[in-house]
Amino acid sequence: MRPTYTIASTYHTLSSDSGAKTTDLGVMPEWDLNDLYPSPNAQVVADDILKAKKAALDIKTTYQGKMQEVARDGATLAQAIVAYENLSDLIGRLGSYAGLLYAANTADQARAKFYGDIQETLTGITTDLVFFELEINAVDKAVLDTALKHPKLSRYKPWFDDLRKEQPFQLEEKLEQVFHEKSVTSRASWNRLFNETMTALRFDVAGEPGPLALEPTLNMLTSANGEQRRVAAEALAKVFKENIRLFTLITNTLAKDKEISDRWRGFKDVADSRHLANRVERDVVDALVQSVRDAYPRTAHRYYALKAKWLGMEKLAYWDRNAPLPEKPERVLNWAEARDTVLTAYSGFAPDMARIAGDFFNKGWIDAPVREGKSPGAFSHPTVPSSHPFILLNYQGKARDVMTLAHELGHGVHQVLAAPQGPLLAPTPLTLAETASVFGEMLTFKKLLAETTDARERKALMAGKVEDMINTVVRQIAFYSFERRVHEARRAGELTSEQIGQFWLDVQTESLGPAVDLKTGYESFWAYIPHFIHSPFYVYAYAFGDCLVNSLYGLYQEAHPGFVEKYFDMLKAGGTKHHSELLAPFGLDARDPAFWKKGLSVLEGMIDELEKMPSV
Questions:
Q1: Average pLDDT over residues 11-36
Q2: Which uninterrupted H or E stretch holds 569?
Q3: H or E element: which one contains 242?
Q4: What's 147's DSSP letter?
Q5: pLDDT tens across 523-537, in order?
Q6: Which residues contact 51 (CB under 8 A, 6 or more apart)?
Q7: How, if at all, do strands 316-317 and 20-23 pair?
Q8: Strand partners, 27
Q9: 75: buried, middle or exposed (CB in 10 Å: 19+, 13-18, 0-12)?
Q10: Which domain holds residue 123?
């Protein structure tokens, strides 16, 4: 059984963090996890664990060694799939709850223990079900095709089709069981070590009254005060360097773990397993990567040279990349302003989109404030179709935080719309999982831009959006290039911190261009990127989504016939369709290099506009 209960980049605490927190940003919500379970010690948690164990045993007893025969009758196979799907939802609920508790406070040992115990329990349960998908893939295709004509089974055809794509890379059952069960003490443990280490790091920033956690320290890199940006960057570099041996060990171990798995399964390229999981072809990703790399001089290089001139610098230090423009002090938006901005933008596109997003605010589905021990970053976790998503933020009142809220709400709306497909069909491949999130950001940006008449504010807003797009497209493709170099080099032997740091500097130099000075200390900044640890090669999905959304938004502005209805249909499809099928109604084709160039042209056009703006 595929894991449906992990969280890609963060985890969570003990007892539900319901209620709201009042700060200088206003009353900020903390999520209420009672919709999943009332507490880790609640009887219903123990009952559901027993229920899951019994359901798994029933499936094993009834179907193991018999799927060839079962598949000859569509009704019987449908009964097996429904039982498997129901168990997937139950397991996902338990795992999601433990993960969300842990992410809210990874420093809490009781929560960490609960999370670890649940992971071990669920891995034990699902190990006994490894046979299920293996035996289905061993069924003769003609037999399966006949069974799929049964009305109770036909809706699962996309799931069977996706499963069949994995057939060439599957091992025999005992080996699959070993890989699955050992994940608790291999990849999962190293992921947890990274999370808890990163959460525990503290940074002594000159001028601050005490040590800071990662999130507020990173936030200083967007400060209007250049000296504050510098001392924050130096504090980050110092602590990363002090811990670099550990992060190097984690990276080496996980890269080797992946190499072992890839070798046994027969994956040739280091990213092929990710492409398979994303249901995207290697040549499509290669076309995206090459298009973005070819555009580096026309996008990031050009923009950062322009920004250096605005800031009166010959070159930008790396800590100046995300500095606000000098013309306008950055406005702080309280939580109510952020909420109203995003919901109004969503409503202008489609009232139903705003209605769904409104539930996140009204029903305790968001955890917004920065808090000691809380995981850094942001995510929208879909949990399971029988429940609803939860969003984690670290909201600090900046325009980028508003865009992050719009981004995660886009994920949340997508996850709500796809949920009726059920546990097996709702999950969306990563290549399309970023579509709604980036589209939500674009809607919010366009609303803010339309309402801005002051020339200085308009320039600052436009520059901020360009930087977000560079961070989403250019930076993520550079991250992908970095990961490729790490994983390819790891196949030849263990890597030193210096080697990894040089890979990092090489790809950053290529992508950021000559206007950015990568000063001493930056060679260790690869260490804090969670996607490298939790989801190898995930990062290109952001660039895929951004370029896709640029093309989609262009069609929306051109009043493409039935755009809103087609857009909602795409989100509702979840994982039931290949990206080519989802894009076809819009006349888009990701195999065509012109598709990526069209998306990148939006970014280039915005930089063109900024170049023409007078200094104000």
A1: 70
A2: helix 563-572
A3: helix 226-242
A4: H
A5: 999 999 999 999 999
A6: 90
A7: unpaired
A8: 22
A9: exposed
A10: 20-185
Report helix, strand or coil for 64: coil
Q: What is the pLDDT of residues 145-197, one digit of tens each?
A: 999 999 999 999 999 999 999 999 999 999 999 999 999 899 999 999 999 99
Number of folded domains that form the chain: 1
Q: Are 547 and 287 in contact (CB under 8 A)?
A: no
* Number of other residues whose CB lies within 10 A of the CB of residue 465: 22
Give 333's contacts (C-beta < 8 A, 6+ positions apart).
341, 397, 398, 399, 401, 402
Dihedral of alpha carbons 131, 133, 134, 139, sign: positive
Query: Is 78 a domain residue?
Result: yes
Could you tell me the pLDDT band of residue 561, with boundaries at 50, 70 and 90? very high
For the chain, how many residues are written? 616
Decide if 79 is inside a domain.
Answer: yes
**Does an H or E element contain 69, and which?**
helix 67-70
The CA–CA distances, whole Å, from 591 to 404, 442, 541 equal 29, 24, 15
CA distance 291 to 285: 10
Three-class DSSP category at 22: strand
Instruction: Give percent of the chain above pLDDT 70.
Output: 95
Q: Average pLDDT for residues 342-362, to the nearest whole number?
A: 97
Coil, helix or strand at residue 345: helix
- Quote the CA–CA distance of 72 and 298 in Å, as a whole number: 58
Q: Are 23 and 87 in contact (CB under 8 A)?
A: no
- Joined tokens for residue 343: 């919901």
Closest CA to 40 of 18, 20, 13: 13
- pLDDT tens, position by position, 53-111: 999 999 999 999 999 999 999 999 999 999 999 999 999 999 999 999 999 998 899 99
Per residue, what are the HEC states of 70-113? HCCCHHHHHHHHHHHHHHHHHHHHHHHHHHHHHHHCCCCHHHHH
CA 164 distance to own-chain centroid: 25
Query: Is 143 inside a domain boundary?
Result: yes
CATH number at residue 64: 1.20.140.70
Residue the block writes with tokens 């130096």? 234
Residue 424 corresponds to which amino acid? L
Phi/psi at 23 (5° precision): -130, -175
What is the phi-psi region of residue 207: left when phi exceeds 0, alpha when psi lies from -120 to 50, beta otherwise?
Answer: left
| DSSP-assigned letter for residue 316 | E
Angstrom distances, CA of residue 27 to CA of 30, 334, 582: 10, 9, 40
* pTM to 2 decimal places: 0.84
Separation of alpha carbons 231 and 92, rounded Å: 43
Q: Does residue 128 belong to any structural domain of this protein? A: yes
